[in-house]
Structures are given as C-alpha cells and as structure tokens.
Design goal:
The chain is elongated, with a radius of gyration of 35 Å. It contains nine helices and 29 strands. With about 475 residues, the protein is an alpha+beta fold. The strands form eight sheets. A six-stranded mixed β-sheet has the order 2-3-8-5-6-7. Strands 13, 14, 16, 17 and 18 form a five-stranded antiparallel β-sheet that branches.
C-alpha cells in the first residue's frame, strides 16, 4: 500500500514539473525564437544588373569617395542592432520628428542617449571600428534616415535592412540585414518597404548645424546653398627639385582660405590649410616614382566650396633644369640589327630626333642628333656601344615640358623618304595621360629604316631605366 501511495505522489510531482516547464517555455522564449517571429523587410527593388562595377571616380569629390567607406562600415554595424526593439523604436520616433524636413536623424543629436551610445559602441568595438563619439566628431554631418514609408513601419515586429549611401554614378546601394546577409538595392526604383540609409545630411553645415532659408524659415540643402563660388580654375602642377611638386591655380575672388587634399590612388587626405589669397602649394619630400593626385577647394568663413579638377603626375628623381645625357645603346641580337641594316651594308648609321609637343598642337620642336655609326657591327650587336651625347644640357620643363619623344632611324645614302614625327605633352589635369601635341613632316630626308617606333622619355621616369623599341636599347646617365 505504501509503495502504491509513493508511486502516485511521484507521478503527481512529475506532472507538475512538466507543466511548469511547458509554461516557462511559452512565456520566456529564447532570443533565436524572438528573431524567428520578427520579420526582416526586404524590398522588391533588388538590382539585377552587373555587380562589382568599376565606376570612374572622376568628377566626384574625393571626400565623398572617402566617406562612402565609412557609410558601408556603419551600415553593417547598425544592421546588427536591428533585433533590439528599443533601438528600432528610437529610430522611428527620431525619424518622424523630421528635424530638417525629411525623415532624417543627425547622429550628433543622439549622443546624449546613453543607451544608444553604449549599444552602438559595443557593436563597433566588436567590429574593431572605434567609438561613435569620435566618428561623429570627425563627421558632424553623419546621418541615419528612413526616407520612405517611415510612418507605416511596425517597429514592434519588423526589422529593416540598412543601406550605405553611394554617389549616383552607381546603379545600386549595398545593404545589410541583422543576420549578415547583403543586398544590392536599385537606385532607380523606390523600395516598397522602409529602408534605413546611412549617409551625410544635406541640410546641415560641416559643424552639424541646420542651414536655414531666412526668407522661408526652412532648412535648405548644403550642396546648393553653400557652394556659391566656382571651383578654383587654372589648376596645374610642375616639378621642382627631386621629390618636389608645385601645385598652382587661379585665386578665387572672395575665399578666406584653401584646403589641399592628396592621394596616391586611393582615399584623399587633407594635407594643408592655406591662408586667404593663396594660389600655389609646394610639397617636398615626396617619394620618387610614385604618382600623386591633388585636389583643392576654397573655404569661405569655415564653409568648404567646390572642388577643383584633380591634377596628377609622378614625383621625379630628377631636378628641374638638370642635364639629360645619352650613355650607351645596342641592338639586343643579330635579328634586331638585321631588321634595320643587313650585314652586306656594314654597320648601321643611326639618326636620333627628339621632339616635344604642346596642347595647342602647333610649333612642334625637333632636335636632331647623329649620325651615330660604330666602326663594326659587332660593336653594337648584343653589346653596349658607349656614346656620350648631351640631349638637354638643361632639361628645363617650362621649355622642354616633361615629355621628349625619341625617334630613331637608320639612314641609307640612297634612300630619301617623307615621314612625320609627333610631338607629345603630359596632360596633368584629370586622370593624367600623355597626349599628342602636333606633328612635323620631314620631306626627302634620308631615313628609310625605322628603328622600332617612337618612344616617350618622361622627366619623372627612373634615371636607370633601360628604354627599348624594336630590339634596340639605350640608357642615360
């Protein structure tokens, strides 16, 4: 009897324990279960074109290119905060305040919210990205927006994906959800659900203060209201001493200073602030054989103005005005020499013409050197033939420019031909390139044997470079 009573008590306790567990499971779901119940809203406006496009940055503010990297970083971090309902509530409430007339949230205005700052800093720390206070200090215009469908967003049950703003040259924005998935949203099609966008606020200045239209008492866009002066015109650059470049431009009429920004092909960095009425900047201690890019902009009472066009060139080992002297030459093998002069004609007779052009395509200047004729074919076949010859006693680039085009010919006494030679120049404005700047015609001139093709010798190329065309090589001192 006692045994039966004991078994009934044990059964009763087990039923109570099972029921308690069931109730606990129903009232305290796990975080994973919570996520399963919350829907992540994904727009249907997914970009279906080519991914990983290579888009030219020409004409885009270098500061914009730099900040797009920041926007991507923060979009990924803020997406990780989407499971936090308090955070979602904060986003909706702040966006709907429309402090600037749009559904924008200036991150600077959230720094007094200790919970927000603490949570975001924890995510940023895990991502190795520093603290939001420092990011906002460096970027007072940093903005979170919900540009569409903000008022209809059910933040209680629905998460949003977070996109990073990009310039309009790109057909899509990169976006991220809380689970680490990435999406490409078309810039041409409005999303059909709300999306969070990380970018810069258009209606505040560089201190993060609203720019107001005093007549209408409404915020106005920074991009149109503050950039009231033209970009600096006449920008260009020149080489000075080795590793020294001078950037110059036309002074703007009413600026109060200038900023100089530089890049080596990636993100631009501000390297100098100049006083009012400046029109040049000399930079020293640059690394030879490295290409540098510069852009400048005026400042008007603390407000940045429009960017200049970029200018670029390569820092040189040479000093402006130093000598350019031919050292030696050779044909690399018998076949290369035979292509110019057969053995039955003996040693080659070599003539060199050096030309320079200009942007106006006129007045191509040509210097003629030679004839160079070794005693024997073997002196120049597969072995260096030393031939000291001063090409420029003073390579002054304000006169000769930075590009000297070398045209080599083998001259036969009984062969007179008509041929043309191009002059070239370096276009430093824009992406940097060597351009044809006119041509000159030689009539009834000996020189039927072309030695390779015309070759550009550029001021900033390494001094020790071996030049080659058609199996013919030469070097300078």
């Amino acid at each position: 009897m006692k045994k039966n009573q004991f078994m009934r008590v044990l059964f009763f306790i087990s039923v109570l324990f099972t029921q308690a567990c069931k109730e606990n499971n129903e009232t305290v779901p796990s975080n994973e279960a919570q996520l399963e119940r919350e829907e992540i809203l994904i727009p249907t406006s997914i970009y279906n074109g080519e991914k990983n496009l290579k888009i030219s940055n020409e004409g885009i503010d270098p500061i914009v290119i730099e900040k797009e990297v920041l926007f991507e970083t923060l979009a990924k971090s803020i997406a990780k905060m989407m499971p936090d309902k308090e955070f979602r509530k904060l986003l909706k409430e702040e966006a709907n305040k429309k402090f600037d007339g749009d559904y924008d949230i200036l991150v600077k205005n959230l720094l007094n919210d200790n919970k927000f700052v603490s949570k975001l800093n924890k995510v940023l720390a895990n991502d190795g990205k520093g603290k939001i206070e420092k990011i906002v200090l460096d970027n007072p215009r940093l903005n979170i927006s919900i540009p569409l469908h903000s008022t209809s967003w059910d933040y209680d049950k629905k998460q949003l994906i977070v996109a990073a703003w990009r310039n309009e040259k790109f057909p899509y924005l990169n976006a991220y959800d809380s689970k680490g998935n990435s999406f490409q949203l078309s810039q041409e099609i409005d999303p059909d659900v709300p999306v969070v966008v990380i970018g810069f606020n258009e209606r505040v200045n560089d201190n993060g203060d609203l720019v107001m239209d005093n007549n209408a008492n409404l915020p106005i866009k920074n991009s149109s209201s503050l950039r009231i002066l033209n970009a600096p015109a006449g920008i260009n650059m020149t080489h000075q001493n080795a590793g020294v470049l001078n950037v110059y431009w036309d002074d703007l009429p009413s600026e109060t200073g200038y900023e100089i920004w530089r890049s080596t092909g990636g993100i631009y960095t501000k390297i100098a602030n100049l006083p009012q009425n400046s029109n040049s900047y000399l930079e020293t201690n640059l690394t030879p054989n490295v290409r540098y890019y510069y852009q400048i902009r005026g400042i008007q009472n603390g407000t940045p103005l429009a960017w200049s066009s970029p200018v670029t060139t390569v820092a040189a080992e040479r000093t402006n005005g130093e000598q350019l002297k031919l050292k030696r030459m050779k044909f690399v093998d018998e076949a290369s020499l035979d292509a110019v002069e057969k053995w039955a004609s003996g040693a080659p007779e070599i003539r060199l013409r050096v030309s320079k052009g200009n942007p106006t395509n006129s007045n191509v200047e040509v210097l003629t050197f030679g004839k160079y004729e070794p005693t024997n074919r073997s002196d120049i076949r597969g072995t260096w033939w030393n031939k000291d010859e001063i090409i420029f006693n003073n390579w002054a680039i304000n006169f000769y420019s930075t590009v000297a085009t070398f045209t080599w010919k083998e001259e036969d006494w009984n062969s007179f031909v008509t041929f043309k030679i191009n002059g070239k120049y370096e276009q430093k404005v824009g992406a940097g390139s060597i351009q044809i700047g006119g041509e000159v015609t030689f009539n009834n001139n000996p020189g039927s044997g072309n030695i390779g093709s015309s070759t550009d010798v550029i001021f900033w190329q390494p001094k020790t470079l071996t030049y080659e065309t058609g199996g013919f090589q030469w070097e300078f001192y």
